[in-house]
Amino acid sequence: xxxxxxxxxxxxxxxxxxxxxxxxxxxxxxxxxxxxxxxxxxxxxxxxxxxxxxxxxxxxxxxxxxxxxxxxxxxxxxxxxxxxxxxxxxxxxxxxxxxxxxxxxxxxxxxxxxxxxxxxxxxxxxxxxxxxxxxxxxxxxxxxxxxxxxxxxxxxxxxxxxxxxxxxxxxxxxxxxxxxxxxxxxxxxxxxxxxxxxxxxxxxxxxxxxxxxxxxxxxxxxxx
Length: 224
Known about the structure:
The chain is of the alpha+beta class. It has six helices and seven strands; from the N terminus they run αααββββαααβββ. It has a domain at 95-223: CATH 3.90.470.20.
């Protein structure tokens, strides 16, 4: 079972969803992710984490923190034991984290996900770098879709992130689209030791804003 402290922070709907997981590891990850999100939102808003209402009608963003007149934009992603959270007081944000893992059909996945400019770079990479490149671009596009609030309704092959250097663990850039809009993107490549094995993760972060983002802070688990 998840730690009692984290479980106590969740509302009834979150507890129902957590109880529906078949594997205890998935349940613990879900509870930890949502408890961590509540702690961060509580810290930013000054509201008790347990009192924050996360569930709103579909399509309504950002969340409104009742009683304090504040609105917060946030995004949450978790996979294979890792959690990524983004919070903003002023602009739409999106975050996605993916475990980088071998995929036998990586060429087919890339052809259905990457823009033609990205496919050109993909085709000139080594086999290992192709896998890393795909997951880093996927995480960026997923984060951008979350910031827009459209999820997988976004046509990934029509958008080029401009991501190039697959060996750089921390990449910050602007993505300029044909409709003259732009988004600030961050791509991270991180290793996490789990059970004595190093696991690689791709983190994508997107901010919808017309001015450069001056400060991007990462909150570690020890801060929660």
